[in-house]
Prior knowledge:
The protein is mostly helical and 59 residues long. The protein has helices at residues 2-10, 13-54. The termini are far apart.
Amino acid sequence: MRKEILAFLRDEEGLTMVEYAVAGALISAAAVTAFTDLGNAVIAKIGAITAAITGPAAP
């Protein structure tokens, strides 16, 4: 029984899958953050262009 437990603890195959899952989650979070920031920048730029075309807002 002790040999099986030690073999299980030394087996790193499951750890590799966990590492891939963590890496995938970090990459996904970075992509979501980047696209959110990009979307906000595009919205701000469109707002600036619209304001330049239409002129100052009426009071």
